[in-house]
């Protein structure tokens, strides 16, 4: 079914909604009025309560089995069911919510019981995250950061062969809206030979795409590149908060540790592969002279349609901007087309050694910067490590984040002839160190 054939919903706020028109239908976990966390679908300004709808008899067959797997406030079992279940649920949801639906009256009669206002709900993590891996596939970010440290040799020689990643910390991933406590740690002040201990002075954000794993693999097996896309349940926005001064002192030789593990924020809605289908793109051709991916990372279909055209935005809201009623300052406008490796390549690489992936595992893409000013996905790049402070309309100046600053990530997909969809926000406000 083409999107153009069904563009309107009887849920008035869904039509033309920035993030959640009928064509998106992302899944999440929410609570309302102190209820236990439960699964729902975002539509316009509302959340469709999947569990209440199940009890009201609105699902049968494969869609019913799919919704049953979302019970209990975690989507892991639903992710495990894979694409067939997602598609069955999506088709039923479109049937329920399209303009002219025969069930319009039945759903509307139950009012907020089935369709509470999202503004009155609290969002939770959508799944139990057993493992979190952060990749580094944003080649512009890798080059920008590499240049700061190695002007003549910004990219290390493995970059174009290996989708670089490291194991992150799952226990401190939090949904949008969770405050960010400034971490404390060891740092090496410039010109000193011995570290000091105290609050991070170079707190930063990283703009990333989050990838939810669906069906996993048995330990010892691997997911081949041609099947990898089928193992992805959906996508979100991810802010990999980074303490640059702690990172600079601790990262050699094993990579980031405490500089990243204090919190990672994600947008709470899982945008499905089906919703993103119109916004798939060919993976951008590799520049002349770059090596071709090794065979286990190469698939023709993945190269032809394994990329995405998703516009990514970062906004900064400070106390000064708030006090003067000024709009948030846009720090970054970038796009997922700056990924050197596709999400399928990340999945194939992660499991090629027999490492087990499980439903509800989360990947970060790595910072997705573009090549130009205005497209950089971290303050480290924007201010060149603090050398070029930015000035805000409030008169405030920033090298890195200060207490009270709030970072807001957004994403949007647009294409002629299709309804635009978004991801919802991923926000976090910095609190002083304790
Ligand atoms: Ca990162």
Automatic annotation (TrEMBL):
Involved pathway(s):
Amino-acid degradation; L-phenylalanine degradation; acetoacetate and fumarate from L-phenylalanine: step 6/6
A Pfam family found in this protein is FAA_hydrolase_N
- List residues binding Mg(2+): 240, 260, 264
| Entry binding sites for substrate | 136, 150, 247, 251, 367
- In its UniProt record, which GO terms are filed under biological process? homogentisate catabolic process; L-phenylalanine catabolic process; L-tyrosine catabolic process
Q: Where is the Fumarylacetoacetase-like C-terminal domain?
A: 140-430
Can you tell me which residues form the catalytic site?
141 (proton acceptor)
The coiled-coil regions, if any, are: none
Q: Where are the transmembrane segments?
A: none
Domain of life, source organism:
Bacteria
Q: What is this protein called?
A: fumarylacetoacetase
């Amino acid at each position: 079914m083409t999107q153009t054939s069904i563009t309107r919903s009887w849920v008035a706020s869904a039509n033309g909604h920035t993030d959640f028109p009928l064509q998106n239908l992302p899944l999440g976990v929410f609570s309302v009025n102190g209820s236990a966390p439960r699964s729902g679908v975002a539509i316009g300004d509302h959340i469709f309560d999947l569990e209440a709808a199940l009890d009201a008899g609105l699902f049968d067959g494969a869609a019913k089995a799919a919704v049953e797997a979302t019970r209990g406030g975690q989507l892991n079992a639903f992710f495990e069911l894979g694409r067939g279940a997602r598609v069955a649920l999506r088709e039923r949801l479109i049937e329920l919510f399209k303009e002219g639906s025969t069930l319009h009256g039945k759903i509307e009669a139950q009012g907020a019981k089935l369709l509470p206002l999202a503004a009155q709900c609290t969002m939770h993590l959508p799944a139990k995250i057993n493992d979190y891996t952060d990749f580094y596939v944003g080649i512009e970010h890798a080059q920008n950061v590499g240049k700061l440290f190695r002007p003549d040799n910004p990219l290390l020689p493995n970059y174009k062969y290996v989708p670089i990643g490291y194991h992150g910390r799952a226990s401190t991933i939090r949904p949008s809206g969770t405050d960010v406590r400034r971490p404390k740690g060891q740092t090496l002040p410039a010109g000193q030979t011995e570290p000091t201990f105290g609050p991070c002075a170079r707190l930063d954000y990283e703009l990333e795409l989050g990838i939810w794993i669906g069906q996993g693999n048995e330990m010892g097996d691997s997911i081949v590149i041609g099947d990898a896309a089928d193992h992805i349940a959906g996508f979100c926005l991810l802010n990999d908060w980074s303490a640059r001064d702690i990172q600079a002192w601790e990262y050699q030789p094993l990579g980031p540790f405490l500089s990243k593990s204090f919190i990672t924020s994600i947008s709470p809605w899982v945008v499905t592969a089906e919703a993103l289908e119109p916004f798939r793109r060919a993976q951008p051709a590799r520049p002349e002279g770059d090596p071709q991916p090794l065979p286990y990372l190469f698939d023709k279909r993945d190269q032809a349609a394994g990329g995405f055209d998703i516009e990514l935005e970062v906004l900064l809201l400070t106390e000064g901007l708030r006090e003067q009623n000024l709009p948030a300052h846009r720090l970054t406008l970038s796009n997922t087309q700056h990924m050197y490796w596709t999400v399928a390549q990340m999945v194939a690489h992660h499991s090629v050694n027999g490492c087990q992936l499980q439903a509800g595992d989360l990947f970060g893409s790595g910072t997705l910067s573009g090549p130009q000013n205005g497209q950089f996905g971290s303050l480290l790049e924007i201010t060149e490590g603090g050398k070029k402070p930015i000035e805000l309309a409030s008169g405030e100046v920033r090298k890195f984040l200060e207490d009270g600053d709030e970072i807001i990530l957004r994403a949007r997909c647009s294409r002629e002839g299709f309804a635009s969809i978004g991801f919802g926000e991923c926000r976090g406000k910095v609190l002083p160190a304790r």
